[in-house]
Amino acid sequence: MTGLIRKPMCGETEHQKLKVFANAGFVECWLGPRLSALQAAVPGIQLEVAFGSSVEDYLRGNADVAIHFGRGDWPEYQSAYLRTGYEFPVCSPELLPPGQQMADPSSLAGFQLLHEDDASGWAKWLAYAGVQHPGLRNGPIFHSTQTIFSKVIACEGIALGDDIVAADLLLSGGLIKPVGLVRKSNSSLYFLQFRTEEDLPGLASVRDWLTRELRSHEEETALLRLNEPYPAKQEQSEPTA
Questions:
Q1: In this structure, what are the phi and psi dihedrals at residue 19, rounded to the nearest 5 degrees?
Q2: What integer pLDDT is reported at residue 99 of this predicted model?
Q3: CA–CA separation, 115 and 64 (whole Å)
Q4: How far is residue 46's CA from residue 42's CA, in Å, rounded to a whole number?
Q5: In DSSP terms, which residues pair with 88 in a beta bridge?
Q6: pLDDT interval class at 94 (50, 70, 90)
Q7: Cα dist. 87→43, 77, 160, 239 in Å?
C-alpha cells in the first residue's frame, strides 16, 4: 500500500513514498518546474507524481493525495483550499502586427480558437464577455495543456489560459494576454487527501509547501488578474531613441 514504508531490496536505501495525483496541465506548466523545490521540502520521501482529472482517476491509481480542480464538495475526504484561477485569452506576441492591440473581446472573431478537451471553456468565457465567435465550434481540440500552449506560441490560434497554468509563459514573454477581460473560474484548486486513516509521511509538508508557494505565486501574478491586456500597451512599446 502506498504511503507506508516498504521493505527495501538488497543494496537499496530504505525510503518512504507519497503518491501525488494532479491535473496534467497543472503538473506540466506549474508543478513540474517547481518539483525539485517540492522534493527538497520533503527529504527522505520519494514523491511519485501521476496524472488524473477526477476523483475516480485518483482512486483507481491508488493516490495518497491529489491536487484537484473542483468545488470542494467531497465530504468523504479531507480537503484544503489552495487557490482560484482567473481565465482569459492568451496568444503569441507574434500573432498581432507590431503595435496593434485588440480593441475588445469582439476582436477575437478574426482568429481561430484552440480548445482544451472541448469547446465549453471558450463558450463560457465568450458568454461572460457578451460576444459571439463565428468559429467557436470549428477550432481544433487538444487534450494537453502543454500541447495547446505550443500551438499558441506557434501562432496557430488563441487559447484560454489562466493566472496559474499560463502564468510562467506570460511573465517570461512567451505568451501575452491580448484582451483586457478576466473571468473567475467556476472551480478552485484543492489539496485532497484520500488515506485519512493513515499518518502519511510527508503529507503535511507537501500541503504546507503548496499552500505557501501558491499564495506567493498569486501575489506575483496580480497584474494578470486586472481587466487589461498583459503586458500593458506602454510595456509593449519600443523605447524611443
A1: -95, 115
A2: 73
A3: 31
A4: 8
A5: 161
A6: very high
A7: 35, 28, 7, 30
User: Is the pLDDT confidence value at 237 over 60?
Assistant: no
SS3 170: helix
Bridge-based pairing state of the strands 45-51 and 16-22 = parallel
Report residue 123 as a C-alpha cell.
463558450
In a 10 Å sphere around its CB, with 0-12 CB exposed, 13-18 middle and 19+ buried, how is residue 112 labelled?
middle
Q: How many residues does the chain have?
A: 241
Neighbours of 62 (CB within 10 A): 15
Residue 197 has pLDDT above 80, yes or no: no
The answer for residues whose C-beta is within 8 angstroms of residue 14's C-beta and 6 or more apart is 5, 8
Q: Amino acid identity of 225?
A: R
Specify the residue for cell string 482568429.
111
Residue 179 in grid coordinates: 484582451
**What pLDDT is attached to residue 233?**
60
Residue 68 has pLDDT above 70, yes or no: yes
223 within 8 A of 171, measured Cβ to Cβ: no
Per-residue pLDDT at 35 exceeds 50:
yes
Q: For the purposes of burial, counting CB atoms within 10 Å of the CB of 148, is it exposed (0-12), middle (13-18) or buried (19 or more)? A: buried
Query: Where would I find the H helices in the chain?
Result: 24-26, 35-41, 55-60, 120-129, 145-153, 167-172, 203-220, 233-236
d(CA 149, CA 226): 21
**pLDDT tens column, 116-162:** 999 999 999 999 999 999 999 999 999 999 999 999 999 999 999 99
Is residue 199 scored above 80 in pLDDT?
Answer: no
Judge whether 200 and 78 are in contact, CB under 8 Å: no
d(CA 217, CA 40): 18
